[in-house]
Amino acid sequence: MPEDNNAERCELMHVHQDIVDRVNQQMPEDEILFDLAELFKIFGDSTRIKILYLLFESEMCVCDIAQLLKMTQSAISHQLQVLKKSKLVKYRRDGKTVFYSLADGHVRTIIDQGMEHVAE
Amino acid sequence: MPEDNNAERCELMHVHQDIVDRVNQQMPEDEILFDLAELFKIFGDSTRIKILYLLFESEMCVCDIAQLLKMTQSAISHQLQVLKKSKLVKYRRDGKTVFYSLADGHVRTIIDQGMEHVAE
DNA sequence: TAAACACATGAACAACTATTCATATGAAAG
DNA sequence: CTTTCATATGAATAGTTGTTCATGTGTTTA
Q: Is the CB of B71 under 7 A from strand D?
C-alpha cells in the first residue's frame, strides 16, 4: 500500500558523492549558463545564421541583405537589432546607408564548429 | 508625387557584383543552414546547457540530473529526448536506470567556444 | 502475479519569438 | 523646406517551445 507518491528521489543517488562534489565545483554559475544559452539562442535562427554567413564575405547594408535573402527590409532590420544587442555585429553609417559587419572572430569559430557537427 | 511605394530596391545594389557572386558561391545550401540553426537551437536553452555541463563530468541517470538541477524527472526526460534526437547525447540501460552521456566531442568544443565569447 | 521503481510520453498551457504591417527617424537631394 | 531614400521600430499575429500533469512502458523485487 503506497504511502506517498512523491517521485522526487531515486534511492538517494545512483552516482557517488565525489561526482556530485566535482559537478558542484566545476559547474559555472547559473547566470553564466543563462547568458551562454542566450548566446546560442541567437544562432538558433536560420535567418540570423544566413545574415552572419553573408557578413563573412563583406560588410553589407540592410537592403543588400534583404535582397540577397529575398526577405523584407523590416524583417532583416529587426534581426540586425538582435545581433547588435548581442554584440555579434557592429555597424557604421555612411550617408543614408548603414553598413553592418561582424563584431568578433568568435562568431566565425562558433559557426564553423557547429558546421562540423552538422556536416557528418 | 510618389508613384509607387514598393520598398524592395535600393538603387539596384550598393555592393558590387563580385561580392554578390562570392556570396552565392560560398553560401551553403539552405537545408544545411537550416540544420545548423536547429543545432544551435538545442544549445539555446539553459536547462539543456546545464544537462550537458553535468555530462561533462560523468554519465548520469535521469533522476540524478533532476536532483542536481532541482527539476522534475519529467522535464529532464523531455529535454534528454531532445538532446537524443539531435545526437548530442547517447544512453545505455542498466536494469531500471538509464545512463546518459555525451555522444560527441564537438559538444564540448562548441560550448567552450560560446563560453569564451560570454566570459569577456 | 503484483507492487514498486525509473523513465518515457502525450496533451495542455503559458511564455516567447519571427515576421508583417504601418509608421517614424534621419540623411541627402532638389 | 519638401521629397525621397535607407533604415528603425512599435504593435499585432501566428507559430514555436519548455514545463507540468497525468499516465504509460519496461524492469526488478517481493
A: yes
Q: B88 and B102 in contact (C-beta within 8 Å)?
A: yes
Between the alpha carbon of residue B24 and those of residues A50, A113, B21, B30, the distances in Å are 11, 21, 5, 11
Which residue type does B119 have? A
Residue numbers in B near A86 (CB within 8 A): none
pTM for the whole structure:
0.89
Spacing of B79 CA from C17 C1' in Å? 20
Q: Check if the beta carbon of residue A39 is closer than 8 Å to that of residue B117.
A: yes
* Residues forming beta bridges with residue B92, ordered by sequence position: B99
- Residue A95: count of CB within 10 angstroms of its CB: 5
What is the per-residue pLDDT across A24-74, written as a single tens digit (0 to 9) for each? 888 999 999 999 999 999 999 999 999 999 999 999 999 999 999 999 999
- Compute CA distances B78 → A10, A37, A83, B61, B75, whole Å: 18, 18, 30, 13, 5
- A112 CA to C24 C1' in angstroms comes to 39
* Interchain contact B41–A (C-beta under 8 A): yes
Q: Name residue B34's amino acid.
A: F
